[in-house]
Amino acid sequence: MIDKTVTSTFPIAKKEPKELKIHDDVRIDNYYWLNDREDAEVIDYLNAENTYTKAVLKHTESFQKDLFEEMKGRIKEDDQSVPYKLNGYWYITKYEKGKGYPIYTRKKGSLEAAEELLFDCNLMAEGHAYFRLGGLSVSPDNTMISFAVDTVSRRQYTVQIKNLVTGEILSDKIENTTGSSTWANDNKTLFYSKKDEVTLRSDRIFKHKLGTSAEDDTVVFNEEDETFNTFVYKTKSKKYIVIGSSSTLTSEYRILDANTPDGTFKVFQERERELEYSIAHYDDSFYMITNKDGAKNYKLQKTSETKTEKEHWVDVLPHRTDVLIEDIEIFSKYLVVNERENGLNNIRIISWNGNEDYYVTFDSETYTLNLSNNPDFNSLDLRYSYNSLVTPSSVIEYNFETKQHNVLKEQQVLGGTFDKNNYASERIWVTARDGVKVPMSIVYKKGMKRDGSNPLLQYSYGSYGSTIDPYFSSIRLSLLDRGFIYAISHIRGGEYLGRPWYEDGKLLKKKNTFTDFIDCSQYLIDEKYTSTDHLYAMGGSAGGLLMGAIINMKPELYNGVISAVPFVDVVTTMLDDTIPLTTGEYDEWGNPNEKTYYDYMKSYSPYDNVTAKAYPNMLVTTGLHDSQVQYWEPAKWVAKLRDLKTDNNSLLFHIDMDSGHGGASGRFESLKEVALEYAFLLDLEGINH
User: Which end of the chain is more exposed for a tag (fewer CB within 10 A), N or C?
Assistant: First the structure.
């Protein structure tokens, strides 16, 4: 168990009161000084927190190593992706035993052809504490590939170009990009998006000519509205370069014939407040998933490529109140629609000739289904991935002509002990305090008795319409095999039950997210899945905000809480338009420059609502270079909790000094943080092996 003899030696952050005033309201922030990562005193404080956490959990270090090796041991080290075909080449990502980064290769024409090495990230990562390769884009003639590298973990990528014929890395070097880039059909023009140096908002699209200096690149679009981000891509048909611009509630696109990269982009449909649409091209038409005319769950419409304004859009699939259209995939002979009904995904297949319109359905009570990588426009096979809480993930190929499913790859769980028949999953419905039914997916090892004695980890996110589906995790087995129940609460703020489910958990309805989670917790206790002595909660980023809110509202329900990269200083962050993400998030949280939103936000912001009372055992994690949630939010929160909490429970703060929002790079490095988190939970249960 945690060594109580070191609990009195935790770091104490100094107080430097700073007055923050708006709307005739004054907040005193004693820890505002922690905002400067260049300040040596700040770094010293963060290092002291790491030292303290290490000291408190020192007795678990051996267990952490065992957990790491156990979780790593279930993962196939010498592994590779299912090859996919694009423009005459098969592309493969593989891992080699003992190496932590991927190797990218390709083969021309067939899988029996000689292998060409594109990138070995193990070599590229040498000398870097953090490394990530992204944005791979091959030129239409297959001779060039653009790629992007981030060695800081602030998601500011440097784009370069490799000649695939000679193996040479060209001198072209483009700094501070989002990572993605797109080739025009002339094989020498590259479009990319660049970030604002301060806010990291993607605000400009540039055009780059092969062999020239990035300083000479042309700005083809400048997104001046600070609530929007911009991006660029090529349609699957390869006919158009598309510039997209989006905020939480509004979108706008511009199109250009990919054969004429020096032409002028044409606005597809001018932005209108709360009009959302996305576009895909097929034949002589565009297809739009849109909420036009109040279609909350979206509808699918089409229009001629020469008449793209919304008055010309006509229905292909009309709006349905009980079915959410999530995605479409266009092939030369078929349209595939990914729909969500009652929380579960179904695949709908429609032939362009009008002869077929049917569903590929799935019988499980709770599962996760996603369209996979399908870049080949002319393919007669659809790839999708399928898994559940007890079923490892599979990549499956469905043939449109034969209607046959072919499992291309099933995730291997090594170690020799896993048998999916030893586990059970269920989906239960919890009646929230306002009468709404909230779904929850749970998994456990068979033989579990509902007597209140089971340790249970309840996880959720609940923001941005992001759905946490009931997915399989070989890592999670380390908890299940030690008697833990794992629950995912599909609370409002996500999109599990459609777009209205999201809208009922944002802005001035944000507290529904928190009360849904608490009501699910209470249900798990009342139904004796667990008890307050054995209930744990976990969430990250906006889910970390959720954790901060529930412990202010109902701390007595939980024995322990893990809050990862948590967004907890909501008011201060949303008032600072120099911080990445802030201005683009007004439609999610509200703009606190308006008093109504300020007052509501202040009423739940975790940092602003810490009071003198008992809190659960807590582990808080962050990354020094986090670009999404700045490290100082959890740092200030922990300092304030330490000052005010009245209990003797553990409060641990772990800062990765080399990484950002996504955690450590490398295939297995992130497992060390999971091992730390699991050791924290298991130790609270008195489990040490």
Answer: C
Written as one string, the DSSP assignment of 569-606 is -HHHHHH-TTSTTTGGGHHHH--TTSHHHHHHHHHH-T
CA Rg value for the chain: 25
Select which of 626, 627, 656, 659 is catalytic.
626
Average pLDDT over the chain, rounded to an integer: 93
Composition of the chain by helix, strand, coil, percent to 5? 25, 35, 40
- pLDDT at position 129, please? 81
Percent of the chain with pLDDT over 70: 96
- Confidence band, pLDDT 50/70/90 cuts, at residue 270: very high
635 pLDDT above the threshold of 90: yes
Burial label for 405, CB within 10 Å (0-12, 13-18, 19+), is: middle
The catalytically annotated residue of 541, 605, 627, 665 is 541
Q: Residues 271, 282: contact at Cβ < 8 Å?
A: no
Mapped onto helix, strand or coil, the DSSP state of residue 458 is strand
Burial class (CB in 10 A: 0-12, 13-18, 19+), 282: buried
Strand intervals (E) in 291-418: 299-304, 314-317, 323-330, 334-341, 344-351, 357-360, 368-371, 381-387, 394-399, 405-410
pLDDT in tens, 30-58: 999 999 888 999 999 999 999 999 999 99
Specify the amino acid at residue 24: D
How much is the pLDDT for 5?
54
Beta bridge partners of 424: 444
Q: Residues 319, 661, 665, 683: which is the catalytic one?
A: 661
Section 302-307 average pLDDT: 97
Dist CA 382 CA 567 (whole Å): 38
Higher pLDDT, 581 or 669: 669
Report the sign of the C-alpha dihedral through residues 541, 605, 512, 563, in that order: positive
Q: CB-based contacts of 128: which residues, under 8 Å, 6+ apart?
A: 151
One-letter-per-residue 3-state SS of 233-291: EECCCCCEEEEEEECCCCEEEEEEECCCCCCCCEEEECCCCCCCEEEEEECCEEEEEEC
The Cα 288–Cα 298 span in angstroms is: 10
First to last CA, the chain: 12
Please count the other Cβ atoms lying within 10 Å of the Cβ belonging to residue 231: 17
Amino acid identity at 117: L
- At residue 661, the pLDDT reads 47
By CB neighbour count within 10 A (0-12 exposed, 13-18 middle, 19+ buried), where does 72 fall?
middle
Residue 156: per-residue pLDDT:
82
Pair 132, 149: CB distance under 8 Å: yes
Task: Tell me, yes or no, if 661 is annotated catalytic.
Answer: yes
Distance CA 274, CA 291 (A): 8
Q: In this structure, are residues 134 and 148 in contact, taking their beta carbons and an 8 Å threshold?
A: yes
How far apart CA 410 and CA 163 sit, in angstroms, is 34
Upper half-sphere CA count for residue 79 (Cβ side, 13 Å): 16
Please give the C-alpha separations between residue 383 and each of 306, 380, 405, 522, in angstroms, as whole numbers: 32, 10, 9, 40
